[in-house]
């Protein structure tokens, strides 16, 4: 069990290399600060399909195809595709797998799916069970909105704490250490579900912040790293309020990461100009930011080692109606440029 | 003059709902339910008619006015038809609004498609 | 001092919810109320215009409420259809939710949205997701009021 360190962390002994990465986003995301980083920006979020669900599925499919193309691989080379999304019964991912004939493992981790799939893909490769694995996820503003919230044309006000679901998909192709030149996945910290009784579905940041704080704290405890060892710690979709609360909780645990801590949900939109209130959310948020921006900047040398942590709120419309509080989860993955 | 009173009364009724929404976690659907029920009760107590006398459309256009016409319909029908009126009166009085909403709703759904928010 | 985040720790939950409350931005209630007041007032004035118009046609003042409602419902439904009502609602809040135009919006919005799930169980069923409860509670209260009125008259 030499690979396991601490309570919740795995140190990968044969760190998988990121071979390629791809992202496709919707029009609003394309207008955001990271617009030029994405492989494709859709002009119309219907993507030529008849429904938003179909558009989301196509977006995920095209992103995966693109990632394989960028790695010069075909579907026959890939051992597994690990994917999930926000829709009931993860239809975007499963319907994607219907088209792309690769052995498929469907995941549900709400918005934490990107780091969840990346963690499992990395462990599958490190364990010697696969040579090539794709980790991918997607979300779509309009399909998520109608499932979790209100019909689009309903005249409601979005609370200031609410976040904007990203229309976007991201896919990462991982291969064994020798197949690529990095960046590499070196550590995986799998989060526990933490729920401190937040019931407000329009304040997901507050619901997920305890899980985020717990995973970050556990990661540092397990690995013995210090905040200085990282250039960036980036959460998935905590938003302004979630980031603030996570820092407050970590402060109480005597861990100060404030100057290297940010959130994908604050990167992808200009929250003021694009009127997204507390930030962005959705599986596609961390997926697009990782596969559009972060990996590129790691390769360019802007970051040497980052802790990428997608965060998820594991609620459903039914649990909300039944008065349940919102369980949060966060999975962290260490991505580094070189193996030192 | 009736425009001024309609504006003031209608505006005030909306402000109460806005305060409810901002200070509690009530969503729009729950506000509508509360308003229709509150309108019916205030109407039965004879209070809402006084608001209508002052505000005109300012009191009948908000959903409380919908509750008012339901309640008044039931009361009038009881006077006319006895206990059967309690069951028929409300819906009869509100039939115009509900019927229009269903018909136009169906029509609009056929003609138009929803658009993503910018 | 929080050291471990345990799920069923009631005191921790209370502490955390206190922190959340402090860290959550307060809605701009005053601005929202002014916008709600103006929009709500204006919508009612449009209603008043039609009410006066129908009265001027010689319709009995009490009866004139019905055509007014129908016209207002049409306006709300149409503005929803062309995609304008949600934009008004974003600024007006309750000012456009509470008037009967908002009731129409609450019917048309889900009806349009669920067209792709078919005309029977999509449009037909979903159009009442919000309006259904309103009708249920409105009609039930009116029946109870009618019954009480009947019993009081005995």
Can you walk through the features of this model?
The complex is a heterotrimer of chains A (340), B (118) and C (154). With 340 residues, chain A is an alpha/beta fold. In chain A, 34% of the residues lie in helices and 22% in strands. Chain A contains 10 helices and 15 strands. In chain A, the strands form 3 sheets. In chain A, strands 1-2-10-15-14-11-12 form a 7-stranded mixed beta sheet, sandwiched between helices. Chain B is mainly α and 118 residues long. In chain B, helix 2 (28-44) runs parallel beside helix 5 (63-81) and helix 5 packs antiparallel against helix 6 (83-111). The termini of chain C are far apart. Chain C has one domain (28-153). Chain C contains 8 helices and no strands. With 154 residues, chain C is mostly helical. The model of chain C has no long low-confidence stretch (mean pLDDT 93). Chain C has helices at 10-23, 29-56, 65-81, 85-92, 94-97, 100-113, 119-126, 128-153. Classes of the chains: A alpha/beta (340), B mainly alpha (118), C mainly alpha (154). Chains in contact: A-B, A-C, B-C.
Number of separate structural domains of chain C: 1
**The CATH topology of the largest domain in chain A is what?**
Peroxisomal Thiolase, Chain A, domain 1
User: Unreliable segments of chain A (pLDDT under 50, ≥5 consecutive)?
Assistant: none
What's the gyration radius of chain C in Å? Answer: 22 Å
**Overall pLDDT level of chain A:** 96
Secondary-structure-based class of chain C equals mainly alpha
Oligomer: heterotrimer
Order of helices and strands of chain C: HHHHHHHH
Short description:
The complex is a heterotrimer of chains A (340), B (118) and C (154). Chain A has 340 residues and is of the alpha/beta class.
Task: Spell out the blueprint of helices and strands.
The complex is a heterotrimer of chains A (340), B (118) and C (154).
Chain A: E1 4-5, E2 9-11, E3 17-25, H1 27-30, E4 40-41, H2 52-70, E5 80-84, H3 91-99, E6 104-106, H4 113-126, E7 132-139, H5 141-148, E8 164-165, E9 168-175, E10 184-189, H6 204-223, E11 232-235, H7 239-252, E12 261-263, H8 264-267, E13 280-281, H9 283-299, E14 305-313, H10 317-321, E15 328-336
Parallel strand pairs in A: 3-4, 5-6, 5-7, 8-13, 11-12, 11-14
Antiparallel strand pairs in A: 1-2, 2-10, 3-9, 7-9, 10-15, 14-15
Chain B: H1 2-23, H2 28-44, H3 47-55, H4 57-60, H5 63-81, H6 83-111
Helix pairs in contact in B: 2-5, 5-6
Chain C: H1 10-23, H2 29-56, H3 65-81, H4 85-92, H5 94-97, H6 100-113, H7 119-126, H8 128-153
Helix pairs in contact in C: 2-3, 3-6, 6-7, 6-8
């Amino acid at each position: 069990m030499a690979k396991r360190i601490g309570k919740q962390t795995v140190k990968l002994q044969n760190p998988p290399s990121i071979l390629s990465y791809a992202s496709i986003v919707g029009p609003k995301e394309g207008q955001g600060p990271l617009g030029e980083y994405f492989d494709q920006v859709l002009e119309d979020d219907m993507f030529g399909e008849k429904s938003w669900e179909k558009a989301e599925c196509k977006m995920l499919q095209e992103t995966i195809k693109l990632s394989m193309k960028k790695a010069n691989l075909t579907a026959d080379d890939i051992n597994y595709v690990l994917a999930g999304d926000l829709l009931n019964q993860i239809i975007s991912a499963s319907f994607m797998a219907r088209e792309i004939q690769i052995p498929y493992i469907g995941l549900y981790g709400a918005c934490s799916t990107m780091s969840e799939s990346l963690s499992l893909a990395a462990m599958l490769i490190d364990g010697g069970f696969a040579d090539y694995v794709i980790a991918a996820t997607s979300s779509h503003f309009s399909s998520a909105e109608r499932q979790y919230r209100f019909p689009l044309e309903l005249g409601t006000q979005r609370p200031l704490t609410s976040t904007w679901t990203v229309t976007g998909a991201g896919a990462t192709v991982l291969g064994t250490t020798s197949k690529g030149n990095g960046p590499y996945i070196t550590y995986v910290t799998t989060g526990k579900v933490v729920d401190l009784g937040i019931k407000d579905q329009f304040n997901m940041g507050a619901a997920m912040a305890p899980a985020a704080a717990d995973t970050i704290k556990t990661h540092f405890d397990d690995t013995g790293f210090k905040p200085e060892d990282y250039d960036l710690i980036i959460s998935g979709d905590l938003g302004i309020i979630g980031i603030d609360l996570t820092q407050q909780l970590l402060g109480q645990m005597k861990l100060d990461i404030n100057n290297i801590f940010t959130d994908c949900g604050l990167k992808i939109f200009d929250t003021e100009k694009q009127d997204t209130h507390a930030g962005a959310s959705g599986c596609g948020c961390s997926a697009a930011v990782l596969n559009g921006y972060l990996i590129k900047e790691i390769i360019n040398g802007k970051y040497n080692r980052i802790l990428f942590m997608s965060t998820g709120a594991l609620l459903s419309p039914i649990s909300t109606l039944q008065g349940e509080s919102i369980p949060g989860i966060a999975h962290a993955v260490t991505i580094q440029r070189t193996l030192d | 003059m009736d425009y001024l009173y309609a504006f003031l009364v209608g505006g005030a009724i909306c402000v109460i709902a806005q305060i409810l929404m901002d200070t509690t976690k009530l969503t729009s659907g729950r506000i509508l339910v509360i308003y229709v029920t509150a309108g019916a009760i205030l109407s039965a107590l004879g209070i809402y008619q006084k608001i209508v006398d002052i505000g005109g459309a300012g009191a009948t256009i908000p959903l409380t006015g919908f509750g008012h016409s339901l309640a008044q319909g039931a009361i009038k029908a009881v006077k006319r038809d006895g206990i059967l009126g309690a069951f028929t009166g409300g819906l009869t009085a509100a039939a115009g609004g509900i019927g229009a909403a269903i018909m136009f709703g169906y029509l609009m759904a056929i003609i138009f498609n929803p658009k993503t928010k910018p | 001092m929080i050291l471990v985040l345990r799920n069923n720790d009631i005191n921790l939950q209370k502490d955390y919810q206190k922190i959340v409350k402090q860290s959550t931005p307060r809605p701009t209630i005053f601005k929202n109320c002014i916008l709600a007041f103006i929009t709500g007032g204006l919508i009612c004035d449009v209603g008043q215009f039609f009410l006066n118009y129908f009265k001027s046609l010689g319709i009995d003042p009490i009866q004139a409420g019905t055509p007014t409602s129908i016209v207002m419902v049409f306006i709300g439904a149409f503005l929803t259809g062309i995609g304008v009502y949600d934009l008004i609602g974003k600024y007006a809040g309750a000012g456009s939710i509470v008037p009967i135009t908002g009731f129409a919006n609450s019917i048309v919005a889900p009806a349009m949205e669920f067209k792709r799930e078919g005309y029977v169980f999509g449009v037909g069923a979903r159009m009442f997701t919000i309006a259904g409860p309103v009708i249920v509670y409105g009609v039930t209260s009116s029946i109870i009021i009618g019954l009480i009125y009947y019993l009081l008259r005995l």
